[in-house]
């Protein structure tokens, strides 16, 4: 997946520790034998773990724990209960809301909006994730200026998907954009699509 995306300035994300100065392609593979489901291995082009996502068994809100490569907690991603459209929120270690991702109605295409306060300039950022799962792709765009900050593609059917229903995604992330946030948005989109099945 050779994708060139323009650098984002100022750096974008609730956690700037996961921003890098070049386009990064994340490979996200759902673990086949996970009891909880929604446990992903997330690596970069060099096969280095960028962030860990561990699904939690027996959680009402389908909680997923995001961890740094060395196991340090970053945030918990949860389904927002009692919501008309599929919605998620990320909760930091202190209980604060780090970002929210909400479904928007869109005929045939998947559409979600992610909102957070940018750590670099304290401005509220709204991103739109619009996908065509028939095309097996999605684009994440900054609504303020229309800049594409990430592109998601899903692998064609493979044995993991046929036998276990596990997905594999590739997420090209623009320079200076929070990799953990883009991985979380991709997982939100995956959950929304799985709900339709």
TrEMBL record:
Pfam family, one: LOR
Family matches, as SUPFAM superfamilies: Tubby C-terminal domain-like
Organism name: Glarea lozoyensis (strain ATCC 74030 / MF5533)
Highest classification ranks of the organism: Eukaryota, Fungi, Dikarya, Ascomycota, Pezizomycotina
Entries under InterPro entries matching the protein: LOR, LOR_sf, Tubby-like_C
PANTHER family in the record: PTHR31087, TUBBY C 2 FAMILY PROTEIN
Family: Belongs to the LOR family.
Protein name: Tubby C-terminal-like domain-containing protein
């Amino acid at each position: 997946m050779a994708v060139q995306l323009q650098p984002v300035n100022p750096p974008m994300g609730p956690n700037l520790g996961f921003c890098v100065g070049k386009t990064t392609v994340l490979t996200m593979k759902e673990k086949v034998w996970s009891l909880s489901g929604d446990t992903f291995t997330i690596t970069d082009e060099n096969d280095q773990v960028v962030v860990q996502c561990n699904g939690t068994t027996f959680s009402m809100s389908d909680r997923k724990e995001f961890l740094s490569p060395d196991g340090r907690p970053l945030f918990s991603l949860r389904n927002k209960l009692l919501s008309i459209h599929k919605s998620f929120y990320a909760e930091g270690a202190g209980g604060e809301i780090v970002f929210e991702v909400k479904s928007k109605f869109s005929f045939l295409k998947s559409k979600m909006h992610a909102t957070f306060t940018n750590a670099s300039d304290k401005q509220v950022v709204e991103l739109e994730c619009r996908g065509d799962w028939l095309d097996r792709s999605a684009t994440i765009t900054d609504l303020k200026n229309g800049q594409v900050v990430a592109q998601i593609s899903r692998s064609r059917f493979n044995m993991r998907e046929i036998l276990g229903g596990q997905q594999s995604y590739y997420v090209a992330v623009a320079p200076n954009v929070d990799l953990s946030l883009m991985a979380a948005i991709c997982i939100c989109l995956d959950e929304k699509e799985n709900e339709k099945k």
